[in-house]
Design goal:
By secondary structure, chain A is mainly alpha-helical. Chain A is built from 12 helices and 2 strands; from the N terminus they run ααααββαααααααα. Chain A has one domain. With 249 residues, chain C is of the alpha/beta class. Chain C has 2 domains: 163 residues, P-loop containing nucleotide triphosphate hydrolases (Rossmann fold), CATH 3.40.50.300; 77 residues, no CATH class. In chain C, 36% of the residues lie in helices and 24% in strands. The chains are: A mainly alpha (300), B mainly alpha (289), C alpha/beta (249). Chains A and B meet through helix 4, helix 9 and helix 11 of A and helix 3, helix 4, helix 9 and helix 11 of B.
């Protein structure tokens, strides 16, 4: 008998990871921007929610959009600064790592964010009088937002804007010669990808009930990065598959294996997957995707 | 005051030795070799754990650590990077980056399992040895680190400018197409670059673990981050820039620690400089525009 | 005169790539731009299309000063180009490649930089029509990276045409192609001119440039050394000297 709470808590974390993965997918998978500091943006969303709900007692309906707004503003500022300096490739990687570090440092040392003690406890979110407090509640809330974010992703992927982002990824100079304002579109990718950080950060804060700077450290950004690459960059199903990896693999290894070995096996899995399928399990031309499309054709 | 300076130069020298390996590999393979941190671990663990087998002779174990690191680094580079570089995906460098990070993490975890979680120390208290020069007492270990770093920079300079293989490396960095047309064998140059860079990484690992008197799987984390800052601040693809940046950041860090409370993470000094450079002069001190 | 370039100069570090370069292109003509390797031909194209900013000089298109504009704006002003080493969007389909240009390369875009008012269906149909014109219609759903060189060259042309250019700059479209393909390319170029588009063509394959150009401009060490009808230019002493030691078709 597997306890319901166990499953729903996994589902909740899965949904939150999923939302992060969708956001990073827009930056990395569609626009090809190697941003390695996504949790820095999530921190903005999470802390905004935390502060607004504890210090100002604002309800969920207000904290959610405000967190998104705040995250998108910061993403715009960071993105604009990076793109104005024409940062690309390695510069962007290191710059975004630096961004993550600085965000965490500010959260640790500036007086308004609770420093090491974080902010909490955060009251349960309420929609139309219903309090989301149990694991079941959160998993449903989480999956609901995954559906919304996934829908947005699908629409983006099929739109002209999505095509422009993908062109950016493929060949920035050719895109620019074809009329794409690469600087503006890159900044736009940052903004669009941070929207999910706002949503995910907000849900995260409500679920774990208190936010600490260590939750948003660089190592966790690597986890988000991993999800997108393993799952399949630049596709709508990719982030979903990608989010399954950090959710299921640690659980699968839980019983028989000591903790250090878990990380070791996890990293080895990453290396093996990446060597065999550089674009991810459900990447554009991956074996799994080809198999699935063959199966789909057979059934019809 | 002089102590500070020597300390800064020693630390800076070590950062440079490590970062140069990363810079060389970047300039030839265009890969951000985060897994280079694993070379520190290889170097550190070899130089400590092999001591009983070589009569506690540090020089020998450090050299062995260098060579082992060279081999391991080359294996990783050829087995993983070169293979992934052949992919026609437009995001292959991101995939390579992920693989590199995963390799570093895997190494850390593997070492934790193999050799335990406790921080290990070197047997004799080498760290407290001091020398009196011109009436100022300086730690031997710091002087040794600074000296070894500068010597290895010099040797590297000779290698890059005077030998055929070294020149091939620089050619491949400047203009890959022209280089291969002129008969430079890319694979051979990759191997040489990986070996040289990783050797330097291993050397810096052995020395770093001596400097801090600490051997532990997580000692590579901070140097890797600082090295990233160093190669950007110095200018991607510029060896002299990397050297200058490494020394400056090393000196800044040791000076900052004297005036700033201990709770302030050391890496932040380098990252602040990094962000400032990225905003004001992205190509770095000596980067090409 | 659709394009008027005056005293264009560009230096990289100490090396002067293009020096005091003048160029006039008349409406509806096919102008050939030739010169030995490294003469500065592609640099001129890069300057015209906003990939590089000139150090000095002016570029006027249809009377309007476009000097120093960024590449995406120049595309929207109706100047398109192809690249010497093709740059397709490898992991996008052939049709998608063309649609990028038809979405983004035409003047109506919003403040945020993405296309507005251009319906997906229109762009798609126009894309298919262009692919048809270049005999690529049956490959429209294939990923660009799976095409042959000739097909990729044609795709590059289709993409350049998708943004409705009035001036098309072709950079060595014939290099690496076999004689049949070269004939095909020449036919397509004449057809494009027939649609009212002015062309400037960089080429090394002499037979190609001789047959297709109305006029030829010769560039050497970044400077114009000759200009005129193909017959005159090919026989020009300076031109022969510049090419001496160079084998050509």
């Amino acid at each position: 008998m597997i306890p319901v709470n166990y499953i729903t808590s996994i589902l909740t974390f899965f949904s939150i990871f999923c939302i992060f993965a969708f956001g990073q997918n827009i930056m990395l998978g569609y626009a090809g921007l190697p941003m390695l500091g996504y949790m820095g943006l999530v921190a903005v969303g999470a802390y905004t929610t935390a502060i607004l709900s504890t210090a100002y007692n604002l309800p969920f309906i207000v904290t959610l959009p405000l967190s998104c707004l705040m995250t998108m503003l910061i993403a715009f500022a960071v993105g604009w600064l990076f793109m104005r300096g024409k940062l690309a490739g390695a510069y962007l990687v290191v710059g975004s790592i630096g961004f993550n570090f600085i965000v965490v440092a500010i959260l640790l040392f500036a007086p308004w964010f609770g420093r090491m003690f974080g902010i909490g406890p955060i009251p349960a979110p309420e929609i139309l009088g219903y309090r989301f407090s149990s694991s079941v509640d959160f998993s449903i809330l989480g999956l609901f937002f995954v559906a919304i974010v996934a829908y947005i992703d699908r629409q983006l992927s099929r739109s002209a804007l999505g095509l422009g982002l993908k062109a950016l990824r493929e060949d920035g100079i050719a895109a620019e010669s074809s009329g794409v304002n690469t600087v503006r579109l890159k900044v736009l990718a940052f903004i669009l990808g941070s929207f999910q950080a706002g949503i995910g950060g907000c849900l995260y804060a409500y679920y774990i009930k208190s936010v600490f700077p260590t939750y948003f450290e660089f190592v966790h950004s690597v986890e988000v990065f991993t999800m997108v690459i393993l799952g399949g960059m630049g596709t709508t199903l990719g982030p979903i598959v990608g989010a399954l990896v950090p959710t299921l693999v640690p659980e699968a290894l839980r019983g028989n294996v000591p903790m250090e070995a878990r990380f070791l096996i996890y990293s080895i899995i990453i290396i093996i997957v990446v060597l065999f399928e550089p674009t991810g399990i459900l990447g554009v031309n991956s074996r799994v995707r080809r198999l699935l499309s063959r199966l789909a054709r057979l059934k019809l | 005051m002089i102590q500070q300076l020597v300390n800064g130069l020693a630390l800076g020298g070590l950062y440079v030795t490590f970062a140069i390996g990363m810079a060389l590999i970047y300039s030839v393979l265009r890969v951000l070799h985060i897994a280079h941190g694993a070379m520190i671990l290889v170097g550190a663990y070899c130089s400590l754990l092999l001591l009983p087998f070589f009569g506690d002779n540090l020089v020998i174990t450090i050299i062995i650590g260098m060579l082992v690191a060279g081999f391991v680094g080359t294996l990783v580079g050829m087995g993983v990077y070169v293979r992934l570089l052949k992919s026609k995906s437009s995001t292959k460098y991101d995939t390579i980056l992920l693989a590199s990070v995963a390799i570093l993490i895997a190494s850390q975890e593997a070492l934790m399992i193999l050799f335990g979680v406790r921080h290990k120390q070197y047997p004799t208290p080498i760290n407290s040895l001091t020398i009196n020069i011109f009436g100022i007492s300086l730690f031997v270990i710091q002087i040794a680190c600074a000296l070894v770093s500068f010597v290895s920079m010099f040797v590297l300079w000779v290698f890059l400018t005077k030998t055929d293989e070294g020149r091939a490396l620089r050619a491949l960095d400047q203009d890959p197409q022209l280089a291969s047309l002129s008969g430079v064998n890319p694979l051979k140059t990759y191997i040489i670059t990986l070996f040289t860079g990783s050797m330097l990484g291993g050397l810096s690992g052995g020395l770093l673990s001596l400097y801090y008197n600490d051997v532990h799987p997580e000692i590579a984390f901070v140097p890797v981050n600082i090295a990233l800052a160093v190669i950007i601040v110095g200018g991607l693809g510029s060896i002299p820039g990397t050297i200058i940046a490494g020394l400056i950041l090393g000196i800044l860090e040791t000076t900052a620690l004297a005036y700033i409370p201990l709770t302030f993470p050391r890496t932040l000094v380098s990252f602040i400089v990094l962000i400032v450079i990225l905003l004001l002069r992205p190509r770095g001190i000596m980067g090409r525009p | 005169m659709i394009l008027e370039v005056g005293k264009l100069t560009k230096a990289f570090g100490g090396l002067v790539a293009v020096k005091d370069f003048d160029l006039q292109i008349d409406d509806g003509e096919i102008l050939g731009l030739i010169g030995p390797n490294g003469a500065g031909k592609t640099t001129v194209f890069n300057l015209l299309t906003g990939i590089y900013k000139p150090d000095s000089g002016t570029i006027k298109f249809k009377g309007e000063d476009i000097t120093g504009l960024p590449a995406h704006k120049i595309c929207k002003k109706r100047i398109s180009r192809t690249y010497q080493i093709v740059r397709p969007f490898n992991n996008l389909t052939v049709l998608e490649n063309v649609m990028v240009a038809s979405f983004f390369g035409t003047p109506q875009t919003s403040i945020l930089g993405f296309p507005q008012g251009k319906k997906s269906e229109e762009a798609r149909e126009k894309g298919i029509e262009l692919l048809d014109f270049l005999d690529l219609a049956d490959k429209k759903d294939q990923l660009a990276k799976n095409l042959t060189l000739y097909e990729r060259r044609k795709l590059e042309m289709a993409r350049a045409l998708a943004s409705d250019p009035e001036l098309l700059l072709l950079d060595e479209s014939a290099s690496g192609l076999n004689p049949t393909e070269i004939e095909g390319m020449m036919a397509k170029i004449r057809n494009i001119r027939g649609r009212g588009i002015t062309l400037c063509v960089i080429e090394h394959v002499m037979k190609f440039i001789y047959n297709i150009s109305d006029r030829i401009v010769v560039i050497h060490h970044g400077e114009k050394i000759a200009e005129g009808e193909p017959k005159e230019v090919i026989g020009d002493k300076k031109v022969i000297e510049a090419y001496m030691g160079e084998a050509y078709a």
